[in-house]
Automatic annotation (TrEMBL):
It comes from Rhodotorula toruloides (strain NP11) (Yeast). Its EC number is 2.3.2.27. Residues 343-368, 405-415 have a biased composition (Basic residues). Residues 391-400 have a biased composition (Polar residues). This is Non-structural maintenance of chromosomes element 1 homolog. Acts in a DNA repair pathway for removal of UV-induced DNA damage that is distinct from classical nucleotide excision repair and in repair of ionizing radiation damage. Functions in homologous recombination repair of DNA double strand breaks and in recovery of stalled replication forks. The keyword Nucleus applies. Residues 246-284 form the Non-structural maintenance of chromosomes element 1 RING C4HC3-type domain. Component of the Smc5-Smc6 complex. One of its GO terms (molecular function) is zinc ion binding. Belongs to the NSE1 family. PANTHER family: NON-SMC ELEMENT 1-RELATED (PTHR20973), NON-STRUCTURAL MAINTENANCE OF CHROMOSOMES ELEMENT 1 HOMOLOG (PTHR20973:SF0).
Amino acid sequence: MAVHASTSQRRQRAASDASSDAGDARRNKGKRAREAESDEEGDHERDLANLDIKDPVKTCRHLFLQALISRRTMPLDLADALYKECVRLCRVEGPEPLNTFIAKMEPGLALCGLDIKTTRDQESGQGMLVLVNTMQDEPAKLATEYRAEEIAFFKSIVERIMLAPKLSYSITQTDVIRLAKQPVTKAGAIQLLKSFLAKGWLSLHESGRIVLSPRSLVELAPYLREQFDQEEDEAEDARNRTVVDCNLCMGIVTSGYACPNEDCGVRLHTFCVAQRLGNDGRCPDRLDDKPNPCPQIWPRDPQTRKFHGVPIGVAALGLGGDEESDAGATSDVETGAGTPAAAKKKGKAAAAKGRKAAASGKKGKKRTKADEDEVEEDELDEDEESDADASNRQRASSSPAATRKSSRTAKKKRTVQSDDDEEEE
């Protein structure tokens, strides 16, 4: 017994020593990695300190612009952090505020047809910095990474979003794919949608629907006003005009509130409501010096004590907070499962399976050889139809061989029908 106990103790000590050695090795490895990283940071800082920056302010502008050009849109908090880092790297003494820094760059950017605009995300209210192209000439239109048919596809998406029912200003991802026209294929439309989202031209709402991004609303504002502005018809239908500016910030409203009065065309972003309505909630239409101002008092939520009107945007669809309007839309776009072709193929497979089950599950009837041949032939026809090209199917259907095959199939079906009638009699 003592021998066994001592052997067990030795094994435990050996295992403990091995575990301790492994832990020491990991700690030493981590320590060496941190030391190497620290040495690299030290070398980087020394290299920066040794740089001969003749004009720190100019270099700081170059660094900031390079970062903004690569992103095109940037949250204001990130822009502020980036500016501070550029100031540190360039060793700028007595840095000025970010707004002043940007304002001093605007004259030079205007010569290049660029401008830096400040806007807010209509859903979150987060401040955004957007670098926009102000030139609308032909060279500017050609300076794009997208081909003509891809730009036409994007325009069709914008049009569908702007003319969406119930002033929802959004469409499902499946609807986007359905807008594809030759030479843009369904697979190409999926890749283009991913590109538009990555480049900041479109945004993915939390409901899964596609909406216009802050970049599009700022840079494409002249195009949107030219194509969809219905100000001339304001007297006829003020509520349902497509392009309406916020009564406070003057930006196009695609998400926010409209005045509850149907005859009033006032709209406000969600983050502009409190500032514009004040404490009494009276419609700001009275502040525009009109002869017959809107007398509406906007309702107030009893719990949050915030004013609200008729929802504009995705909220107008009444989807609810947790309900998604396009469930599984992201995975559908990635896999192509949400395309009409995939749905059609899935429907055909289900129909073929249903016919097979119906033919094999008849009670009180004997399954004939003709029934089996018919089911098998239907399955083959479905497979051929889903895999063959449309033009090939059209040529095949008009050929003499296809005509003879169709005649044989029709004759076989009539024979099966007559056999069933005889059995019933």
